[in-house]
Design a protein that fits this description.
Structural class: mainly alpha
Radius of gyration: 25 Å
Distance between the termini: 37 Å
Oligomer: single chain
Low-confidence stretches: none
Strand content: under 5%
Number of strands: 4
Order of helices and strands: HHHHEHHHHHHHHHEHEEHHHHHHHHHH
Shape: globular
């Protein structure tokens, strides 16, 4: 490494970024791994192997993740194919509406599914009047149903993009050689889009493994990895400290294994098609159009039921846990804005600060990695991707283990909540910023410097304005996911610092669904309003960055 590179401000800025990442990403991760071997008596790994409830939690999590992944694939792939290849009435809504499920917080989805299909749910009571008794929505049935109708959207998005880029001339060539249309799609198109399908399916698998909100609300005694980790974290005693670290380490190992498998599949399945053209959608009318539109519309309608239910519940009178459907009131919303506005204010404050820090840090670090590479930037790039392998519960455990005392005691402060938000959502900004920077020619920056503008000023006056569209899109995406975060914040928050998702979770646990619906409706508004404004006023397509 030359002396000039050491004297460069970019090198020292990279060193600072690496130090921050080591402190707030690597240190908590190492604290988790170290904690699994700490404590008196047998290590956490020995307890994991010898204790049936922990073994069941791991096994049940793998079964749940596999089941949800298969169902999501069976829903998402046909829906993507129908949307990409056919034209029918209502197609625009069917293609767009599944994306709305991405901004419905999981805690709200779990709550509203219970309001519909729980023991005293609206649909359950209605069917009971006709002698139809549904199985309990708690346990396997509720977990698989609710997660499948949330996560299928990820398979849908990845598959519809792959089908759209597929060169239909290859399929036509196979048919011209006598291959039937159905077989041509299976033999020609499927191998090309299969890596995208598998990558999306593996993403669903990892999200199911790390799911906390739906798991803890609907599991009801069914051991699951994320729930067991949370329960070990909130209990007292050395054994629990050891076990929370061990269970968190198991989650990290599962997710990292899947991410490596994902990378291997994608690297083996790259197909490059030059000057191809996508298939023109085939118009369907009459009975054929109805036969295609009806199942697709039903899937979308079911996935949007939580949004409808939360709106109805927010204005429904309730007496304790009993919802008085058909009786309307504004008292629930009055509680959110007047009686107990703390969770709303906390969410706006913490998420706002975290979004600003995350985007600013991501923009600068991405610039260093792409435009000012040095001996340290490779490490910065790798470590900044580590949060992708950490679920919210694992991150919360790591932050508690790392900053519960010592020279930097953050536990019990607002700072640890903000830090959990920043670390968890930082990869969103990094991905957007790096993709944009790769498309900015170095000659633009070099021309500015040659005209006498210092490098740092060139970054702010030349490079950053070009990055603004991507930065703005990442800002909205970071905000929408941060303000809905529960799994990490539920572990690190303290009294008086409840956010909207935490308050909703506590109300659901108390059975106060009407109040929970009011807070949930406000949370959905806090998420959707910036998305709508960004699209209408600035033309920012938030979902394109997913």
């Amino acid at each position: 490494m030359s002396a000039d590179s050491i004297r460069s401000p970019w090198f020292w800025l990279t060193a600072l970024a690496l130090a921050l990442l080591a402190l707030f990403v690597l240190y908590p991760l190492l604290s988790i791994i170290g904690g699994s071997f700490s404590g008196e008596g047998p290590s956490g790994w020995a307890q994991l192997v010898s204790t049936s409830k922990y073994r069941e939690a791991v096994l049940n999590t793998l079964i749940l993740a596999s089941s949800v992944t298969v169902i999501c694939t069976l829903i998402g792939v046909p829906l993507a194919y129908v949307t990409a290849r056919y034209s029918f009435r209502g197609k625009a809504l069917i293609a767009l509406l599944p994306l709305i499920t991405l901004v419905i917080p999981e805690v709200i989805a779990a709550q509203t599914w219970l309001m519909m299909l729980g023991n005293n749910g609206l649909i359950t009571k209605f069917l009971r009047e006709f002698g139809i008794r549904l199985p309990s929505f708690y346990g396997w049935f509720g977990l698989i149903t609710s997660m499948s109708f949330i996560y299928y959207t990820y398979v849908y998005i990845g598959t519809v993009a792959a089908i759209g880029k597929f060169d239909v001339q290859l399929e036509e060539a196979a048919q011209s050689l006598g291959t039937p249309p159905g077989r041509a799609r299976m033999k020609v198109m499927l191998p090309v889009i299969l890596p995208a399908i598998l990558a999306s399916a593996l993403l669903v698998f990892t999200m199911t493994v790390g799911n906390f909100a739906i798991s803890i609300i609907l599991s009801h005694g069914l051991p699951l990895l994320s729930v067991s980790t949370y329960q070990a974290a909130v209990s007292e005693g050395t054994t629990s400290i050891t076990m929370q670290s061990t269970l968190a380490s198991v989650s990290v190992l599962i997710v990292m294994s899947v991410l490596f498998l994902n990378r291997w599949i994608v690297s083996r399945g790259r197909y490059e098609i030059v000057q191809g053209r996508g298939a023109r959608p085939v118009p369907l009318e009459g009975l054929r159009g109805l036969m295609v539109a009806a199942p697709a519309g039903l899937v979308v309608a079911i996935s949007l039921l939580p949004l409808v239910t939360i709106a109805l519940g927010a204005f429904t009178k309730a007496r304790g846990p009993v919802m008085q459907w058909g009786s309307w009131t504004f008292e629930n919303l009055e509680r959110v804005f007047v009686t107990a506005p703390g969770p709303l204010l906390n969410s706006l404050l913490y998420a706002g600060i975290a979004t600003f820090i995350s985007i600013a840090f991501s923009a600068v670090v991405s610039y260093l990695v792409v435009k000012k590479p040095n001996v340290l930037t490779t490490w910065v790039d790798y470590i900044s991707a580590v949060p992708l392998a950490l679920s919210g519960t694992v991150l919360g455990v790591g932050l508690l283990a790392a900053f519960n005392g010592g020279w930097l005691p953050l536990t019990g402060t607002s700072a640890i909540i903000v830090m959990a938000y920043v670390v968890r959502r930082m990869p969103f900004g990094m991905r957007n910023a790096q993709a944009t920077l790769h498309n900015i020619p170095n000659s633009i920056e070099e021309a500015s410097i040659s005209l006498g503008s210092p490098p740092v000023r060139t970054f702010f006056r030349v490079v950053l304005p070009i990055m603004l569209p991507a930065v703005a899109s990442a800002t909205i995406l970071t905000w929408t996911t941060t303000v809905a975060e529960l799994s990490a914040s539920i572990l690190v928050y303290s009294g008086g610092r409840e956010t909207l998702p935490i308050q909703i979770f506590r109300l659901i646990d108390s059975g106060l669904m009407a109040y929970a619906s009011a807070y949930g409706l406000v949370l959905v508004a806090v998420i959707l309003i910036p998305v709508i404004l960004a699209n209408r006023l600035f033309g920012i397509d938030v979902f394109s960055s997913k």
